[in-house]
Amino acid sequence: MTALVAARAPLGRQLRSELRWILRRPRTVIGLASLCLVPILAGVGLWFATDGDGPAGPGLAAIIAGNGLVLPVFTLFLALPLLLPLVGAIWAADGLAGEAQHGTLRGLLLSPVGRIRLLAIKSFGVAIMSLVAVTLIAVVGVITGVVLFGGEGMLTLSGSTLSFGEGLGRIALTIALVTVQVWGVAAIAMAISACTEHPLVVMAATMAGVIVFAVLGLFSALDWLHPYLITSAWEGMIDVMRDPLPTEQLWRGTVVAGCYVLIGLSLAAMRLATKDN
Amino acid sequence: MTTSTSARVGSAASAAGSTPVFAARTRGLRKVYGRTVAVDRVDLDVPEGAVLGMLGPNGSGKTTTIRMLLGLVRPTEGEVELLGKALPDGVAQALPHVGALVEGPGFHPFLTGRENLRRAAAFEPLLASGDIRQAVEDALERVGLAAAAHRRYRGYSLGMKQRLGLASALLVPRRLIVLDEPTNGLDPAGTREVRKVIADLHEAGSTVVVSSHLLSEIEATCTHVAVLHRGTVVAQGELAELLHSDSSSLLIVTPDVDDALSALRAGRISARPFAEGVRVELIGTTAPVVLETLVHAGVAVHEARRHRTGLEDLFARLTEAEESEHSLSAVDTIEEGTR
Asked: How far apart are alpha carbons B131 and B169 in whole angstroms?
């Protein structure tokens, strides 16, 4: 018998194939299209609310009049507590549990794709798609905001006005910060996804986790726990709209989300390494 | 067909030398799920170049054994060697040369047959990126799916799904192909095509492991058989040899029935008359001895033939009366004989 050498398909080809597979899925297209509606609906809602006297609402909604660049930030913070974690969970669920359900995970392992490499490919797909989703919301938000509310610059919560370019910079920063938070949730979803063949279980468990974390964050008796909850950082992220930029909370929230990514992917790798398929 | 293929394998094995080479082998394989022992003490040998049929009733451990053979499932105990590489470490070396269809075809319903194969091909280590397109078309052609390749997998019939699964196993020339129930859901024409594919693979020198509950399927396509029952291998070896050693009587066609009977009885060989002559039980004697006795006694022997047992008889005996001491020892002797 001639000697066999370990062979691997090129990583780039695998990653491209993974992305093509995600984008070919009807639910991806429908999902992304629906996400585009979120800033439009929010914008239209706020536009009607600003018709009367007084502010359109608390927080960011109060400064939306004539301040269109706030809309993408407003929409992302609106979507962060539930909608974006759901989006991340769906992709993570389809990535492993969904493939297992269709029997296609077996095919990939037989190719063979190393199990750790498989997790890397899947995580790449989820990470890119989360970034795409967040960016898409922001871009549609910018367009909707400028069309509905106009705005040469960005009025911050601190009362100062940033130039249009600086405003876009703040929006880019928000995209990055929010995406990392979604990655944190999606990584945990990935760990659950490695344990089951039912995508619905992954989504339900992830969303239940997010809701429970949010509820735990309400009890002051659990103050000691709050720094470890990924959801606690989400409220503080409104800091991105202050001038000058207070970085402490934003930085801490990003580090916590980074820890969730590490923990989630480690758990997923441990499970995948020994899983029977 | 069976005899001709087994003869070819026999010559191939002798040409390879005295030490047989195995495409896959397992030793003391055991898998426990919770409290259920799915597979126990499985020592399976798949000689290189063989078409090995895995036979067994539902739940006999065929699929679990195959999944362990391919590194999909970790054995609780025991060892697996695939193309000479010990698993699980050798997976990256061995699996690129192995094509498999396990537990039914697995594809994405929203992609067409061609897109599904392209995705599978993207992960094949032995396929150069430039060759993917052609390899996919060839595989589709080979299983007769070219005309339906542009349709979504969702709309495929069971037989078409099965063909697509076969196509993905055939994307690259393989040294070993493992097919778990490949004819499931196929019509007679499809079954014949699968048989043809297996024969072609065998011709090209690939080793094939095919599991089936269809005995006629195994008998028609395989050179070797492994019979599983209750999670363990109760018999394995060359098909012809297994059937041969199972038949323990000789049918002798002769007009001189009475002379034959008395001659045999004088030689203390048990025999009884049957329609065209006598039937001799080969217990404590062999066919040449019987014939010599008859010829010496001047009995006209027109024809002497083994009473051939079909695979079905063998299978029924192995799986139904497996507990009895008699059949267990018979199995042991069969296995001794084939090693």
From this structure: 16
